[in-house]
Amino acid sequence: MSYETRPEPTPDSTSKIEDRGSFVERVDSPPPAPKPDTRNLNAKLANPLAGVPHEQLMAEAAIFAGTHGLAEYTETIQKGALVAQDPAAFESLPLLTEDDRVALRREITHKWDQPAMLYYLVVMCSIAAAVQGMDEAVANGANLFFPAQFGIDPGPPGTGMNKNQWLQGLVTSAPYLCCAFIGCWLTDPLNKWLGRRGTIFVSAVFSFATCIWQGVTNSWPHLFVARFFLGIGIGPKSATVPVYSAECAPPLIRGALVMMWQTWTAFGIMFGYLVDVAFEKVPDQSSIHGLNWRLMLGSAGVPAVIVALQVYFCPESPRWYMMKGRYTKAFDSLRRLRHTDLQAARDLYYIHVLLEAEKEVSRSTRHKFLELFTVPRNRRATLASSIVMFMQQFCGVNAIAYYSSNIFVIGGFSQTAALLASFGFGAVNFVFAAPAVWTIDTFGRRNLLLVSFPLMAAMLLMTGFAFWIPESNPAHIGVIALGIYLYSAAYSPGEGPVPFTYSAEAFPLYVRDVGMSLATAILWFFNFVIALTVPALLGAWTSQGTFAWFAGWNIVGFFAALFFVPETKALSLEELDQVFSVPTRTHAAYQARAFGHNVKKYVFRVDVGDMPPLYEHEGAISEKTYAPGGFAA
């Protein structure tokens, strides 16, 4: 199979003519800047220590220790460098003691046996994720009360669009408008200036302050401004906490710990709905009107305070310390996060050589954002990541997360029953998020999407049709709730965890940071669009039309994932480069044929044999032999 590659740099047009020992230079045109070979860049970042002789590696590790204030740990760092070069070969390294080998073996056989400090850090990150979930859920309950108090009651569904529907949507969506255009883009400067802990602290303080601010507002514009500034707490926190946990976690459990962000966000959503139920019946006081919804919105500030108080008891990210040249601090952090000094030294030295490789790459690639679109391999990763991030919003989950209480009331539930039913939605979302920790690395990212989208479409249609059941029939509210719960069960292990995981691994390392920033901004922008428009959709199209609208988008999402989202499960960096180097037309044409092939084979039970594989690492045949649809690379 042939792959698209970037063109070789044009030869330097500068010519030199020798004349009796001297050089006469003739410049025809300025030499073009050489284009970096992105595959070589990726390979260098994948393993900067590959091929370095042991003697040279030992000497370089000794120099590193001596020049970075770690001379007393020279021998430990030398051993760590040897282990970092090939982590699987530690049994054959004569420099290691038996105690060293026992610790490294146990790291593999008992991967969840980690220092208490690491789990303390995990708890802090989990609470930070729950803060975000609560911010979403408490707004759901508050939407039953504040619009009427502030004169922006959207009115009954089916009466057409009106101004109040848009105003309610604007207030609800305000934090995500801020995230898309301000919050996400503050992440990089805040992390550079304040570190991971400092960014989490500032964002937690902003979350607490704005949650209290929401609770004391006296008009919808005032509430809009307060919620807009909440986005400064949500955006940097959502981007920093997963990075912080990834940089502190050991390699063998890094993926599972990063996945905790999605799991505990789901927990926060569930807990937020429980808070809505708890405060729904709180009566007004003589000078406070709407105390119930004010307490709902303010309650999300409580876990934010816990995060702010807890974060500085955790060690700072070792990688951030090293980026600032503070290597002794980085080693101290790693010693708190690992059982032995050898494990800390191994990770310290590997981070160091990786940072040096990244600096070299940064000097070679000055326009990383443009290369997301100009380099074919990167462009395909950008397309796939954008699809999964966009569809996480347009699959309809946040239409329910923000407005399920309103939807249940429209369906004939009392306010209390609507809040309890919303809690049920949150509970199902949390419970069914747990299986993703195992299925995402076994069943695969793409397969989870391809199963999730049709199921979500079917459940949304079921929910929408249930609104036509007469309200006098007990099945009316039962089928509405069942449809939403089954939808949540289909979403949580599929389109729920896949987008962040997929986007984090699809981009090559040298553009991963900017690629993730773009992907996250897309997610928050369309989150804002959903939160803004759902009240108007309910007014114009009724619940049936709104659910059918999102069901249709899930069908679009299925085919978009089928044609444009390659699988990334358990692939090395080299294999990922192969996957994303297959031309988009070739991939789409192959998947179209595979779709028809699988329908014949598994639905109609026709013996059609097996499809030839598409990728080299799967044993693919040449495109000259098989070019689906006639498209050649």
UniProtKB/TrEMBL annotation:
Annotated Basic and acidic residues bias: 1-28
Record membrane topology: Multi-pass membrane protein
Gene3D superfamilies: MFS general substrate transporter like domains (1.20.1250.20)
Top-level taxon in the UniProt lineage: Eukaryota
UniProt similarity note: Belongs to the major facilitator superfamily. Sugar transporter (TC 2.A.1.1) family.
Name the UniProt record assigns to this protein: MFS general substrate transporter
Species, as recorded: Ganoderma sinense ZZ0214-1
GO cellular component entries: membrane
Reaction it catalyzes: myo-inositol(out) + H(+)(out) = myo-inositol(in) + H(+)(in)
Localization of this protein: Membrane
Keyword flag Translocase: no
